[in-house]
Amino acid sequence: MLLSAIRCRPLRPSLPHLARLATAPASRRSRALPLALGAGSAACCAFATQRIAAASRLQPPPPSEVEHSSSSAYTSSLSKMPKLSLVLKLLWRCGELSFFLGPMLFWYALRKIPLAGERWVTRQALFKRLVRALARCGPVGIKWGQWASTRYDLFEDDFCEAIGQLTNDAPSHPFAVTRHAVERSFGQPIEELFERFEHEPLASGSIGQVHLATLRRDGATVAVKVQHPNLPERMALDMAILRLMADLCSLLFPQLRIGETADQFATNFEMQLDFRDEARFLRQFRRNYSGQFWSAICTFPQPTEGLVSQDVLVETFEAGESVATFLKRNGDRAINCWRKLENGEWQMERQDSEGWEDSDENAMRSSIALCGVQSYLKMMIWDNLIHADLHPGNVLIRMEDIGPLARLQRWIVLGDSSARVPHIVFLDAGLAASFPQQIFKSVNSFFDAIVQTDGVKIGRSILGLAPSQPNVADPDAFIQEVAAKCEQQKNEFIVGAGNPGKNIRSYMESVRHHGVVLDPTVMVALMSMMVLEGWQSRLDPQISIMECLAEATGGGMFGRMTRLNQLLQDTRETLSRAFGMS
């Protein structure tokens, strides 16, 4: 990633042939450089055209997984394009990306000039230029910025806050484009469909932007999500370039399986290009959380019947404050925390937390963090349908009144019988994932093993997170390594230390070292969990993921309440079908 390279070390050529070129006579360098660039560009474009052709020959996904795929269709059309035209398009796009990102190297080098550099180019100025550069790169750059803004464990706080501007304030398209998309999708003038339609978008992201509107037919306030123009074409080109770079990296580092990661990233992007899929996911999420208990904790927008198309989605408007805004306004929760010393020992760092324990704000933060984690664990453990884009801009918080039954259930599980409680709204469900059935069993076994802190079982479960493990030379060595790490993490947990995100990354190091293959949906789920854990720990770092897992499984209170709600829901549906049949 660009920023990690910029932060860690200066970029310098290291390949021997580059060194020889640098020491060659000037006349030779002047001839060699254009030839090298020309040959390299031609080879890259030829490789990219082969990649596009290969992608177009892949078997399409089953209808149950993706009903429509505009990006895949455009990839197929690119493969049929004359090769000269395709090469020119790829060259133009490569030139655009280089033009947008190339100056960052200059500004970084300028900042590194001794004594004066940091005065000429401040950190904030460098971050602002990076935000603009990523925004101009389009959806791929914006999505990377959104991901990076949540990774406080990888980047400094000021960088995450600066780059977080891309979460809901990405570049927007003109209203004329929105009007054209809405009228083309639904075959009516926008004034006939909506009594009021705000020209300025509420928010803009990597895929589209959202407008506030009022339906003419029933006066309901709705959010209208409109896809950015020419997105499938730009995405197909960007994904071809991304896959090309991944293939080149795989030649140098085959053990990292970078190509698989790039393919999964591209597939995730392509899934979001048809809003009909998002509407289908939203309906399923709403069914999964329709019980009295869960509907009092969280909800999802409801698509409006008859107003859903490939590039326009009309859904209920959900009021609330995003977690990103809440954290920016209120800051992280400061409490006593553990820090690992260089000698391996743990030391308590005491911070001023007077008044936190009994404050209403602290109780609200804890409730939001706990319910957010438990909602996600329900997706993975019980429903097998995971919201895979849970950055803090996609999660809203609002206060809601709840009924007597929901209050009773909440009191049993959380010890809170309040009539007005924090409510979570999950937005932007275009990126969702489900495990294959056999993998789903291994996922549940993995979580059971974590609850039991059974390192051997954890290792075996990880090996089961793919249909086969052809690259693992010694499965027993992998299992023993995971078991040793589990024991160390258990000891850290006993003294109140440790971090779930770091634990996951520790296991991933073993996965990479032993060549373990993970099903792509597993990686989607893990990355989404790490993003959620990032903002959950900022809300309330005292919430333990281990305890949440124990509560979410069959024997825990959240698990029992989920089973009860599922039983009631199934009974209602059975009676409804029987009544309808009669």
From TrEMBL:
InterPro entries: ABC1_dom, ADCK_kinase, Kinase-like_dom_sf, Prot_kinase_dom. GO terms for molecular function: ATP binding; protein kinase activity. Residues 196-582 form the Protein kinase domain. It comes from the Eukaryota. SUPFAM superfamilies: Protein kinase-like (PK-like) (SSF56112). This is Protein kinase domain-containing protein. The lineage of its organism: Eukaryota, Haptista, Haptophyta, Prymnesiophyceae, Prymnesiales.
